[in-house]
Amino acid sequence: MVILNYNGAHFLRQFLPGVLAHAAGARVVVADNASTDDSLALLQREFPAVELLVFSENYGFCEGYNHALRQVESPFVVLLNSDVAVQPGWLPPLRELLAANPRIAAAQPKILAFSDPTLFEHAGAAGGYLDKLAYPLCRGRVFDTLETDHGQYDDARPVAWASGACCLVRTSIWQELGGLEPAFFAHMEEIDFCWRAQNAGYEVWYAGGHSVVHHVGGGTLPKSSARKTYLNFRNGLALLYKNSAPSELASAFARRLVLDWVAGLRFLLAANWPEAQAVGRAHMHFFQKLSYWQQRRRLAKPRLLVGQRAGTYAGSAVWAYFLQGKKRFSDLFLT
What we know:
Number of domains: 2
CATH architecture of the largest domain: Alpha-Beta Complex
Organism: Hymenobacter ginkgonis
Keywords: Glycosyltransferase, Transferase
CATH class of the largest domain: Alpha Beta
Distance between the termini: 31 Å
Helix content: 40-55%
CATH topology of the largest domain: Spore Coat Polysaccharide Biosynthesis Protein SpsA, Chain A
Protein name: Glycosyltransferase
Largest sheet: 8 strands, mixed
Family: Belongs to the glycosyltransferase 2 family.
GO molecular function: glycosyltransferase activity
């Protein structure tokens, strides 16, 4: 298990004891992204069983994990956020799933909210999905609507993406695909990895209700952060551009641009100037690096159509949610 840490001493103190107690024989590694708090002193003082990787600079989420996994030898590696409370028995179902099927690149547990364990958590819930324009949603969470968990999504199944908050990855496929996209820095990086895995012929799974964790969420950037808005909109464009099938790219990308502009206009009308600016900067910076994204698209070799990918909604989740009032996952008739 690799926990990427940046100034997260409070989370390590709170959640590492549970991780160690329910490690099910796995090594626990903390990769520190040049923290300036007392994370390292805490780990050395209170958690001597934890292995340490100390970086000289903050590489961000993507390159932080890329650096860490180059130094960890194991057939499977858990990517685990520092603000996740694991539950007894959470790891074996994930490990058994990947061991039984060599085509599975990654799998996630059921992720519930730490603040209210009756609710699914935003970042992953019961498995990640995408609509045809690459807007992410989950079983149990569509945009800002979180469902109550009453076992309705306890079945294991293939999905579009596994949450970077907590997922088990097959190291050989991770290395084959080059890990996480470094230019993303953070946000949607796991979606990009999983989409590339599907295009390469692999599968991504939700392990079902036997594997459960609770996630605090928003530990690095709050929901209202303009920085988070910028990363989500920039990376959303890059995600769609890199991975869409050639015959579907032009139409999907044009529609995505329009919907992003509508979102920016909504921020303006709400007098939220920082987030409106964030959308504009996201688009500007994407197009400034278009040659880079073209190169990354060639490396990704996208091929699968919307209807050929697991965990994909053939319509527009934005249209369904905001204009048709379809707020729950089951309302969208996803397959």
